[in-house]
Amino acid sequence: MKKAIFYLLVCALLPAAASADEGMWLVSTFQNMIYPQMKKEGLKLKPGEIYNEESPALCNAIVAVDGGMGTGSVISDKGLVITNHHVAYGDIHSLSTPAKNYLEEGFWALEQKDELPLKGKTVTFLRKVADVTDEALAIRDSLEKANSLGIFGTRKVYGILERKYGGDTPFEVECASMWKGKKYLLFYYETYKDVRLVGAPPVKIGAFGGEQDNWGWPQHKGDFALYRVYGDAKGRPAAYSENNVPITPRKVLNVSTSGIHDGDYAMVIGFPGRTNRYMSSQAVREKEHVTNPVVIKARRDRLDIMLRHMEADPDVRLMYSDKYFNISNYADYAKWENICLRRYDVIGIRAAEEARLAAWIDADPARRAEYGDLLANLKKGYEARAEAVREKCYYQETWIRPSDVMMTANRLGTLVDRMLRDSIATVKDGDKDFAGVKSNTRRMMKDFDPATDKEVLTQMVQSFTDNVPREMWGDRLPQLYDRFEGNVPALIDYAFENTCCTSYEKLCAWFAEPRSAEDILSDPMAAMANSVSSRCFAENLKQAEGASGIDTDAEELRYAHAIYEMRESEGVPQYPDANSTMRLTYGTVGPVSPKDAVHYDSRSTIDGYLEKYNPDDYEFRVDERMFSLIRNKDWGRWGENGQLYVNFLTNNDITGGNSGSPVLNARGDVIGLAFDGTRESMSGDIYFHPTNFKTVCVDIRFVLWIMDKYAGAGKLIDEMRLVK
C-alpha cells in the first residue's frame, strides 16, 4: 500500500461514525491497514484524539474559511485562527486603500479593538457526521421509479435529507456523496460570521517570489495571516456586533517550536476542494488536449496585459492585484498540470487500468450486462463532443469572464431578456429590476482601470472571433464585426466610446430616463453581450452528444462506479475524491529529486531572501527592516543551530481548499502551514505521483519570527500554547 496518498474521511476514524456495511468496511480498512501505517510513520495519537464527537479532538480546531476556499486552525483560547496569506489576500486587498495599503505595509492589531471586521467573512467548524447511505439510496430509487430524478437528482436527494435532519438541530446540515454516490454522509456545521483580521505580513513577505516562484521549489514565503472569531455572549454564531466576544474554542492546537527534520511525521487536516481521481483516460485526454490549452493561452494573455499596466502605475497595481493573483494561480496550475500529465503518461496509466477493468467486466456475465459497453461508449462520446467542448471553453475564458465592462454589459443583456420575457416596457434607475445591475457595477468599478480593461477586452474578443465559429456569435456581434471589416481593435474602440458600461456614473446617468429593451440594445457593448448566449454553447454540446447517442457525464459516473467495484473486489483501500469535506492526509518531511540530475533539500532558509533579492523586480523586494534582521542573524528563539528555516517539503496529499491547513507532527502540534505544491505535483487533482508529489509548507518558527522580530507582535504569540 502506498503511503501518504490517502484522503481519509475523518468520520471513518471511529466506528460510531459508520453504521452501514460500507461504513464498517471503511472503519475496518482504517483500523487494519491505514492507522498501523500512520503509527509506523511515527504517529503518537489514538484515533479518538484526531476525530471525536464526544470530547475535544484535533478536528475541532480545524475550520473551513469562506465555506472551503481555504482552511484555518485555532491556535489560542481567544479564538485566534491562522491560515495562509494568500487565503486572506482578498480580505487584505479589500481593506487596503492608497492611504492605508495593508497589502504593501502589512497589518497588525495588537489590541482587539484594532481588529478589522470583514463583511461576509465566515469560518465553519465541523461538529458531527452521520452515515445516511441506506436512506439516500432508498430516496434515489423512489425518485427513479417516479421518473422524477432528472439532471438535478443528486441535489434532490441531498435536499430531502437536509430538510429532514436540519429542522431539529442548531447546526447547518449538508449532505455529500462519496465515490460518486456509493456512500452518502450528513455533515453538521457551525458557521461563525463575525470574523476579524488580526494580522498579516506585507505582500513582499507573505507572497515573496510571487508568480515566478508559484508552484516552485525552493520557495521562501511567509504565507500566513491571522483572524479572530467572535460570537455572542454565549459563544454562539452571531452577526457582527461591537458587543460580541472572542469565542472559547472546543480545541486549541499547540504550536511546536522544536522544528522539523527529514523523516519526521507530518499530517494535514483540512477541507480540500475537488479532485477527479476516478476520471477515465478519455476525460484526461479532453483536459490535456482540449480545455487546458485554451485556459492557459487565454489567461496568460490577460495576465500579460494586466501586469504591464500594474507595473506602470501603483494605483492600478492595487486595483488589480487580487484579480491578478487569482488568475495567475490557476493559469500556472493548468500549464504545469499539462506538463505533468504528459510527463507521467497519465492517459497511459489510466488506459492500463482500463485494460484490467475490461478483463474484470468480461469475467462475469452480470458485470458484462451492466458495464460491457462502458469503455466503447466513453471513447465514442468524448470524440464526438471535443470541438463543442473547445468552443464552450473559449466562450467561458474569453467572453464572459475577462472584462468588467463586458460583465456589466452581460447584466444588461440578462435584463433585456427578462424585460422581453415578462413584458416589461421600460426600466430606469430606481426600479427594482435595475437594482442588481446597479449594485454589482458599483462594487465592481471600485477596482477598475478603463485602459487595462479595454486592452484585455480587445485581446479576448480577438481570440473569441478567431476561434469560435461565426454561427455561434448570435445576431448583433456579426453586424458590428462586419461594420468594422473584422478590425476588432476598432470595434472595441467604438464600443468603449459609445457604451454606458464603462463607469458607475455613466450607467446611472443613462438610466436616469426610462429605457426600453430596444434602447438598451442600442448600446454597442450591451448588443455584443446579448448577442452571444451561453444557451447556444450548451445546446451545441448537447447536440454533439446527441448525435453520438452518448451521455458522456452519465458514462463517467458509470466508469467511477465500475472502477470502485473492481478495486473493492481486489481489497484495494480507496479514498473518495475531495469535495470540500474534512479530510486527513499523512506522510513525512523529506527532499525531492524531481528530474534528471536535480536534487532539492527539504528545507529552505532565510538566505534565500538575499539570494533572490532584486530591487528592480516587484516580486523579489526586501525592505530595510528585513535586511537588518537577516544581516544581524537576529533569529531570537526561533532559529536552529544558527540558521532560520523558512519553508519545507512533505509528501502529504493536498489540493485547492487545503491552503492554510495546519501541518501537524506526531503529537498533533502545529509545525507549519500547507500553502502550495511543487510544479511536479500539478497532476495531483487527477493523479498522485508516488515520489514527485510534494506539499510546500511554511515553517511555523518562521511565522513566529516574523511576528516577533519583524512585526513586534509578540503580544499575539503570548496567546498561543508553545511547546517543544
List the helices and strands and how they pair.
Blueprint lengths: L7 E2 L11 H21 L5 H4 L11 E4 L4 E5 L5 E4 L1 H11 L6 H4 L1 E2 L7 E2 L5 E9 L1 H13 L7 H14 L5 E7 L4 E10 L1 E7 L2 H4 L3 H4 L11 E7 L13 E2 L8 E2 L8 E6 L10 H32 L1 H30 L2 H17 L2 H7 L2 H25 L5 H19 L9 H13 L5 H18 L8 H8 L4 H10 L6 H7 L6 H5 L2 H8 L2 H15 L3 H18 L13 E6 L3 E4 L2 E3 L2 E3 L1 H6 L11 H8 L13 E6 L11 E3 L5 E8 L17 E5 H11 L3 H4 L4 E2 L1
Parallel strand pairs: 13-23
Antiparallel strand pairs: 1-15, 2-3, 2-7, 3-4, 4-11, 5-10, 6-10, 7-9, 8-9, 10-11, 11-12, 14-15, 14-20, 16-17, 18-19, 19-22, 20-21, 21-22
Helix pairs in contact: 5-6, 9-10, 9-11, 9-13, 9-16, 13-16, 13-22, 13-23, 14-15, 14-21, 16-18
Can you walk through the features of this model?
- By secondary structure, this protein is an alpha+beta fold.
- Helices cover 46% and strands 15% of the residues.
- It has 27 helices and 23 strands.
- Strands 2, 3, 4, 5, 6, 7, 8, 9, 10, 11 and 12 form an eleven-stranded antiparallel β-sheet that branches. Strands 1-15-14-20-21-22-19-18 form an eight-stranded antiparallel β-sheet. A two-stranded parallel sheet has the order 13-23.
- The two termini are 33 Å apart.
